[in-house]
Amino acid sequence: MKDIIIAGAGHLGLDIYNLLEEINSVKRLWNIKGFINDIPVDLDRFKLPIKILGTINDWQPSDNEVFAMAIGSPSGRKMVAEKLIRRGAVFETLISPYAQVSKTAKIGNGSVIFRDCLIAPCTTLGQFTCIGHSTSIGLDASVGEYSNTALRVNIYQDVKVGCACQIWSSSVILNSVGDNSIVGAGSVVISKVKPCTRVLGNPAQEFGRTDEGV
User: Fold this and answer.
1) What is the torsional sign of CA 162, 163, 166, 167?
2) What order do you get walking across the sheet with 188-189 strand by strand?
3) Domain ranges of the chain
4) Sign of torsion, CA 54 150 174 205?
């Protein structure tokens, strides 16, 4: 049994901890060693049996360690993944035992799928995607690397979501979403979303760019 370290100690880090416990309750695979995080976080109020072990910037992976990705933002997730992988880190792909994932779905390394998700046949999830609770991804749909969905997102069949996208809770995605875009909570995407675009509403309308000020 390997030690697993959670990279990130924010809200997603707590969710990842609970997911690891959920997986271990069915089949014990890992010793959950603790968190690494660059920003000080007070975890005492959550009364967890694990603590912050150190910073991501300073952590040197050892032979018996694997990692779980728990950085929320796509850009931060990419930066942390690349930083730790350069030092030899190995990231686990985490799938809730209570998610329905087709055997023909392709799941990228370091990805996370929470409970009650439905991942249909022939879907593709890029590396380090994060699929939130109760999300449905239809037949032959795809989600690009470093993208994430929040709770109860519905991505219809054949729809392509690009890389480094954020799809917030209760959204319905009926058309493609370009790279580096953000879909606001409760939105219904009927028309194609251009790369680096923020959309919101039903039907979803553009209300800004994600690359403003860059």
Assistant:
1) positive
2) 100-101, 118-119, 136-137, 154-155, 172-173, 188-189
3) 2-92, 93-203
4) negative
Reply yes or no on whether the pLDDT at 65 is more than 80.
Answer: yes
DSSP H or E run through 7: strand 2-7
The span from the CA of 50 to the CA of 28, in Å, is 17
Please tell me the predicted confidence (pLDDT) of residue 212: 59
CATH of domain 2-92: 3.40.50.20
The class that CATH gives domain 93-203 is mainly beta
pTM: 0.95
Q: What sign results for the dihedral spanned by CA atoms 155, 161, 164, 166?
A: negative
